[in-house]
Amino acid sequence: MLKLGLNVDHVATLRQARYRSAQTSAAAPEPDPVWAAVEAELAGAHGITVHLREDRRHIQDRDVRLLRQTLRTRLNLEMADTPEIVSFAEEIRPDEVCLVPEKRSELTTEGGLNVAAASKSLPRTVNRLKKARIAVSLFVDPAQEQVGAAAEIGADFIELHTGAYANAAEPAVGAEIRKLIAAAELAHKLGLRVNAGHGLNYQNTSRILAVPHLETLNTGHAIICRALFVGLRQAVREMLALMGNG
């Protein structure tokens, strides 16, 4: 069964637009991404994803701590390979960490990790997280050399970056799907488990189902947008139905 990991970063983005920090203000800062996660679980989501950025532009440390304490499903922590965040992950021990590239100027993650040309810190970080009994995923573009490099440094998962597919127009869509299929097949052959995400919505998710060996789709923006009109539980259920879990 293909699983849904809901990214609640955009709930935190809305909160931070009014409340500079979740730790300040006499009123309870809202909307609360932790409560959104609870609603998503009640609707059938299989896990929650958050990206703790260095600049704390949306998700805060407090959010991750509370999610670790309250979730009944899985917590997937997206993060850059930086000393502070790696130490935080070792302390919190999410079920899974997905290592991603990160730039202060970007609105959202723009591409996959260049694992093949990564610094020596990346294998050390993977080893540290695995010693803490955290499953490690690497967010990569669907390129053969990146998948091979992820296997070489000992990752448990890859998460295929679906952004190029999501942004493609016909006839390029078919070519992007074929890249994702080839990357997933190679990952499976090399012993890697496969997730996917980025830019998936209610229009393009159905074609992703052609990619083999997928375990979890991690997505959030489209679901949070849909929730403004139908409520979060209904938005989650609609996505689950598209994925064949309705």
Any overview of this molecule?
With 246 residues, the protein is an alpha/beta fold. The protein has a single domain (3-242), classed as Aldolase class I (TIM Barrel, Alpha-Beta Barrel), CATH 3.20.20.70. Helix content is 44%, strand content 17%. Helix 2 (33-43) crosses helix 11 (232-242), helix 6 (144-152) runs parallel beside helix 8 (172-189) and helix 10 packs across helix 11 (232-242). The longest helix has 18 residues, at 172-189.
Features:
single chain; 246 residues; alpha/beta; TIM Barrel; 8 strands; 44% helix; globular
Radius of gyration: 17 Å
Q: Spell out the helices and strands N to C.
A: EHHEHEHEHEHEHHEHEHH
Annotated CATH topology: TIM Barrel
Q: What order do the strands of the largest sheet run in, or round the barrel if closed?
A: 1-2-3-4-5-6-7-8
Structural class: alpha/beta
Mean pLDDT: 93
Put the structure in a nutshell.
With 246 residues, this protein is of the alpha/beta class. The protein contains 11 helices and 8 strands.
List the helices and strands and how they pair.
Elements: E1 3-7, H1 9-18, H2 33-43, E2 47-51, H3 61-70, E3 74-79, H4 83-92, E4 96-99, H5 121-131, E5 135-140, H6 144-152, E6 157-161, H7 163-167, H8 172-189, E7 193-197, H9 205-208, E8 214-219, H10 221-230, H11 232-242
Parallel strand pairs: 1-2, 1-8, 2-3, 3-4, 4-5, 5-6, 6-7, 7-8
Helix pairs in contact: 2-3, 2-11, 6-8, 10-11
